[in-house]
Amino acid sequence: MAHQFLLEIGLEEIPAHVVTPSIDQLVERTKNYLAEQRITFDSIKPFSTPRRLALLISGLADKQPDVEEEVKGPAKRIAQDKDGNWTKAAQGFARGQGASVDDIIFKELKGEQYVYVQKHETGQTVSEVLTGMKDVTMAMTFPTMMKWGSYKFQYIRPIRWLIALLDDEVLPFSILDISTGRTSQGHRFLGHEVEIARPADYEEALTSQFVIADAAKRKTKIRQQIQALATEHNWTIDIDEDLLEEVNNLVEWPTAFAGHFDAKYLTIPDEVLITSMKDHQRFFYVRDENGKLLPNFVSVRNGNDQHLDNVIAGNEKVLTARLEDAMFFYEEDQKHDIDFYVNKLKSVSFHDKIGSMTEHMKRTGIIANLIGQRVGLSETELADLQRASEIYKFDLVTGMVGEFAELQGVMGEKYALLFGEKPAVAQAIREHYMPVSADGSLPQSNVGAALAIADKYDSITAFFAADMIPNGSNDPYALRRQAFGIVRILRDRKWHLPLLKMGQDFEIALSNKHVEFNPELTANLASSRKRIQEFMNDRVRQWFAGQHVRHDIVDAVTSADTTDVVNMLDDAAALVAHVDDSNFKDAIEALTRVARLTKQDLLDAPSLPVDPKLFENDAEQKLYDGVNDVKAHFDDRTPEQNYQALADLQPVIDAYFEANMVMDDNEAIRRNRLNQLAQLTKLTIHLGDLKQLIVK
Q1: Closest CA to 571 of 554, 584, 550
Q2: Is there a contact between 418 and 334 (Cβ–Cβ < 8 Å)?
Q3: Which of 157, 311, 426, 583 could cross-link 416 (Cys pair, CB 3.0–4.6 Å)?
Q4: CA 379 to chain centre
Q5: DALR anticodon binding domain: which residues (predicted)?
Q6: 197 DSSP assignment
Q7: How far is the C-alpha of 546 from the C-alpha of 624, rounded, in Å?
Q8: Rounded Cα distance, 39 and 345, in Å
Q9: 172 pLDDT exceeds 60?
């Protein structure tokens, strides 16, 4: 007989952003538990609202299958003494299996006799197994945990009721002072307690008490209600999916409604209005058919349409107060010029161990110029980059950003244009924050991209020099995100920027320009370079992980001497493109054989002279000619083309080793051959440390 089981955890209101991950976690933990307990089932249907996490499991088996197994114990020579008496080892083994020594049998394994016990385990009933859902429930983890009462137990919010219903029977267990039953709670204001007779009745019973427990159905209802309002008023509403998810997890019985605000506030930039509505009030903003923002909004109430006018008026009042503040700051901020705000940054701390925001901007300007020169920006772009670096943080001390921190950069661009700055400069001010997340949008302009890299690189350099390096999950200054942003921007722009060389140039430029920097940190800059490179390489590995690139290829391209992110990415792409070639294994083995014979001192040598007069056979001449041909075109080819050219040398390399003893007794010949192999190795390391590749 198939069974149904209902588990409901009733809670105080859960933060909206935690609801969906929590129910997903409960489903996953339940699946794992049932699998461990060998209980089969057909399906698990999740339910979630701000006040409950619930599961309806259908098609549960009656019981666990019985288990017949043969358990192996110690060797016979250990289990019995010389007189054939059972030792303590044998007795303990039998006792541990719920048997006696009389149940022991002997079997031979690899030439030796061992003791065995035939073990029969009767499967538990489904009701016995499901009482273990108490432990599943209590084992859940959350981003934030709290205690309540005098209990030490922690959970996302206090548990207020529990339902554990197998068919029509309550499975008894307790968590703290809450015992399982069959009584659920309806909507906090519209509903009341409701008895659940059987698991299948759960959804309908809660609907009668103004709770739509199915999150997907609730979301669909909200979407339909918003669309109905848009159709009624001839509005365009682009439903933000993240906002819809959040709103859905704030309500149990949704009712969408439309509100209005004074059209005078439309003189404020759209971004400010949208931030006020979407981020602060969880409202959906409204546009006309031409995309122009309208003085209207749509929100969702947790309740029915009774007294909706009062609800609308209340929401309009709250939004108006926030827009009034925004209007005030917008007008006040324009009473000063950019120089006024830039001057104020002298008193704003970047970090108390590092210096002021002004000093950070000066260092960023130096780095930005180095980047611009290296990647070939035009004179106009370099001039725009210089101007942007001088002012790009000015909006931090404006009243608008003080009130709406989310608008950093956005208001910088708006105000820069109002104050007469060039559009390219204003755009770079906004773009220097990009990307704001792991998969966020990237700068669209060269000037913005260079400023974004420079700002992030200075932050990383400064914090590393101050020995404030991320460890474990601790990254208070988001340095990992900033480093990953640099990787993404470099890849997007295809800018070749050797970071170690840039670090050296930065230190020289700091000295030459006499830019103020905490003296205690200046001495740490050079020693931090290697750690910064390793940190950046980890972010490159993070990018490769997202692309599911083979780990050995990742190790190969990130373990080499290159500090150019784009080269690492291109080298990996070249290896990935050829990894399935029929000759990949032979080619890599040939090239790595050469690399293993090459010592580091030769790789560091400024020149590696090879004298053809010392060649003793044609194999040496053919390798010499082949390497010179690859070398002559190496800089003009793509990494993939260079890989193919090197792979084509495989039969020549094999023939060379067949015909020659590299470590010849004649010192001149030995040195000549080692130099010849080192020349080839210097080419292969441009593709990475090929010795890291797994080709077996």
Answers
A1: 554
A2: yes
A3: 426
A4: 37
A5: 589-686
A6: S
A7: 41
A8: 64
A9: yes
Dig out the tokens for 252 from the structure.
């149990």
Task: Name which of 369, 338, 662 is nearest 510 in CA terms.
Answer: 369
pLDDT confidence of residue 68: 77
Q: Is the pLDDT of residue 508 over 80?
A: no
pLDDT at 676 over 80: yes
Q: Do residues 509 and 366 touch, judged by C-beta distance below 8 A?
A: yes
Query: How many Å from the N-terminal Cα to the C-terminal Cα in the chain?
Result: 52
Rounded Cα–Cα distance for residues 22 and 137 (Å): 11
Helix (H, G, I), strand (E, B) or coil at 56: strand
Both tokens of 584, joined, read: 């990949």
pLDDT over threshold 60, residue 514 = no
Q: Is 80 exceeded by the pLDDT of residue 531?
A: yes
- Report the residue count for the chain: 696
Q: What is the 3-state secondary structure (H, E, C) of 505-521?
A: HHHHHHHHHCCCCCHHH
Q: Taking each helix axis as running N to C, give the angle between helix 446-465 and helix 423-431, from 0 to 180 degrees, rounded to the nearest 10.
A: 40
Output the pLDDT for position 516: 57
105 token code pair: 């049998």
**DSSP secondary structure string for all residues of 135-170:** HHHHT---SS-B--TT----BSS-EEEEEEEETTEE
What is the residue whose two structure tokens read 């474990």?
A: 472
The rounded radius of gyration (Å) of the Cα atoms in the chain is 35
Q: What pLDDT score does 416 carry?
A: 97
Q: Which residue has the tokens 């003791």?
A: 115
Cβ-based neighbour number of residue 479 at 10 Å: 21
pLDDT of residue 513: 61
Residue 551 vs residues 198, 240, 542, 695: alpha-carbon distances, Å: 51, 37, 11, 13
DSSP 110: T
**Helix extents (H) in 432-524:** 446-465, 479-493, 499-513, 519-522
Note the pLDDT of residue 444: 97
- Indicate the SS3 state at residue 550: coil
- Distance (Å, rounded) from C-alpha 312 to C-alpha 317? 9
Q: Could you read off the pLDDT of 621-665 as tens digits, one per residue?
A: 999 999 999 999 998 999 999 999 999 999 999 999 999 998 989
Rounded to the nearest 10°, the torsion over CA 380, 384, 386, 390 is 160
SS3 content of the chain, % helix, strand, coil (to 5): 55, 15, 30
| Contact (CB, 8 A) for 412 and 419 | no
Q: Which of 501, 545, 543 is nearest to 526 (CA)?
A: 501
- The pair of structure tokens assigned to 677 is 């192999």
* Count of C-beta atoms within a 10 Å radius of residue 670: 15
